[in-house]
Specification:
The chain is α/β, with parallel strands linked by helices. The chain has 14 helices and 27 strands. A hairpin with a 5-residue loop joins strand 13 and strand 14. Helix 1 crosses helix 2, helix 8 packs parallel to helix 9 and helix 8 packs across helix 14. The protein is globular, with a radius of gyration of 31 Å.
Length: 551
């Protein structure tokens, strides 16, 4: 892009004229000024235009062109420095891209300046995340079991997550566990709706205050200074902050102050700052004279050390995609968490499952990692224990536990002695859905004959992952035998035989297994969510695609 080319392109666009000619500086940045005719009483809007040398390519997420008018900062989609927030379509060459960008500028003028349109979706306040004393901080929070009173305040309790990295600096991560209100004499605990695994971790303490209004400038930028923020706190809230500081001065190095405000939909959003005990922004001083002299607490002047916060409430955490709620709410047992079962467990957890129990009799060893949803980092461990830890790390909304390995002995002992199967049924009736991924034919027969009210789903795979078989209760044993006989796969040759005295196992890579398991799960989830008719099936593969074959 050159000055002459830009000038020529602008002249070809209606309602836009050049105010100051375009020039290029020593850094190859083009700049100039244009005006857009609003067609409203001859009113025009002037914009400074800056075009980076990388144009039309976006670099590190930043658009290479800026239209700037600081007088319009109160309008939607105008950033703090006056730049128009743009998300343009991409074109193959700079000329077409520039014409499109000019047209988008006109569209903004027509929609937001002239017509005063409002967006249907809410945009959070813009926060600039800067390191505090050389480190970044992030606090995750979720919706709570109860509502908050207006102008509420008290202590917030949170726990640590694993440290991260941002801009080559340490990111300290936390998740909020609960809020304890001190507004009234009797304290009230309001727990976050996350799993017990996070609620039961070691807690640290901070402060929360539900403000009188949003801490915003122009309803879209976060307030930057304490002088402007102070008026949004009640005097009781300020006094509580000072009292907290006095109590914890020698116990804490720093603490978060959560500032809450209600969104248009009634939801509360929390924005946090980190306050260090050696540089507190609030002070108490005496005002008045004689008998009217009282202590007064207020903020000092200064810049607010805002940090990053993230809403991890269920609907936000799984907002980009989740399984249907009717399935997510089910209580699920996954028996056998090897190559197939571990992938099933991970997928359901990432899909928003809320209650999962896992079961396996084996240990996770290094050789299991290459084709299962395990990590080498945790070394050798019981599969059930390792999987529970893994699933909890994925989702803060899954309540996950495991059955003891003795279940296998109990179930088969009752079956072998021909005892009443009602006991076995009751053992499993506590679950809505049971995935049997053990490839244990004896367990398959017992479960099939138990009469449990749980929906049974049996998953197995042939050698080299040529086929995946999925059978639903009832008559799982009969279905599995029929399909394997029909497929007529050689299950005894070319198996993997590890060193030592150990049963051989089928050969297949993670990709071979996962591709079929995920394809099968797509249909299983739809069936268990009443979007497809429940029907046993097997998945086969040819040179071009995967195919589901219903029995």
């Amino acid at each position: 892009m050159t000055s002459d080319k830009v000038t020529k392109l602008i002249e070809a666009v209606s309602r836009i004229d050049i105010v100051d000619g375009f020039t290029i500086n020593e850094n190859d940045v083009l700049s100039g000024k244009i005006k857009v005719n609003t067609c409203e009483d001859g009113t025009v809007l002037e914009w400074n235009v800056i075009i980076e040398p990388c144009y039309p390519f976006k670099v590190m997420g930043v658009e290479p062109i800026r239209f700037i008018n600081k007088d319009l900062v109160n309008y939607l989609h105008i950033m703090e420095g006056g730049s128009l927030c743009m998300h343009p379509a991409e074109y193959d060459n700079a000329e077409d891209q520039f014409i499109h960008d000019l047209e988008q500028l006109k569209e903004w003028v027509d929609k937001y300046y002239i017509k005063g349109k409002k967006d249907k979706h809410y945009e959070h306040l813009v926060v600039n995340h800067n390191p505090i004393r050389g480190q970044y901080y992030t606090y995750c929070f979720a919706e709570t079991q109860d509502e908050f009173e207006d102008e509420d305040f008290g202590q917030v309790y949170y726990t640590s997550l694993v440290q991260g990295l941002k801009n080559e600096k340490i990111m300290i991560n936390f998740v909020v566990q609960k809020f304890t209100s001190h507004k009234r004499i009797k304290k009230k605990v309001n727990t976050c709706l996350i799993s017990q695994a996070y609620l039961n971790n070691e807690s640290f303490s901070g402060i929360y205050c539900l403000l009188k209004g949003a801490p915003s400038v122009h309803n879209k930028f976060l307030i930057k200074d304490f002088d402007s923020l102070s008026k949004l706190f009640t005097q009781n809230q300020k006094d509580f902050i000072h009292a907290f500081e006095e109590i914890y001065r020698n116990k804490l190095k720093y603490f978060p102050l959560f500032c809450g405000y209600r969104l248009p939909n009634g939801e509360i959003h929390w924005q946090a700052m980190v306050l260090f005990m050696d540089d507190l922004p609030i002070e108490s001083f005496r005002v008045g004279t004689g008998r009217n002299r009282v202590w007064h607490t207020d903020f000092k002047s200064g810049t607010i050390p805002w940090v990053q916060t993230e809403n991890i409430s269920y609907k936000h955490f799984f907002g980009r995609g989740a399984m249907p709620q009717i399935l997510a709410d089910k209580k699920i047992l996954i028996m056998g968490i090897g190559a197939i079962g571990s992938i099933v467990a991970e997928t359901l957890t990432r899909g928003g499952a809320k209650r999962i129990t896992v079961y396996d009799i084996d240990d996770k060893e290094p050789g299991n990692v290459c084709r299962s949803a395990y990590k080498f980092y945790s070394g050798v461990s019981e599969k059930s224990y390792d999987m529970v830890v893994f699933l909890r790390q994925i989702s803060p909304h899954v309540e996950c536990d495991s059955l003891r390995s003795v279940v296998d002995f109990v179930v088969k002992s009752y079956a072998a002695e021909n005892k009443d199967m009602q006991y076995i049924a009751e053992l499993f009736n506590d679950y809505d859905i049971i995935f049997d991924c053990t490839t244990d034919n004896q367990l398959m027969k017992v479960l099939d004959a138990s009469g449990t009210t749980a929906q049974l789903v049996n998953l197995s795979i042939t050698n080299h992952a040529q086929d995946l078989v999925c059978a639903f209760s009832p008559k799982i044993t009969e279905t599995v035998r029929f399909v394997y006989t029909m497929l007529h796969r050689d299950a005894e040759s070319d198996l993997y035989n590890p060193t030592g005295c150990w049963n051989p196992t089928f050969k297949a890579s993670y990709n071979d297994i996962a591709s079929k398991v995920q394809f099968a799960l797509k249909h299983i989830i739809r069936m268990l969510s009443n979007q497809e008719h429940i029907c046993s099936f097997y998945v086969t593969e040819d040179d071009t695609n995967l195919k589901i074959n219903r029995t």
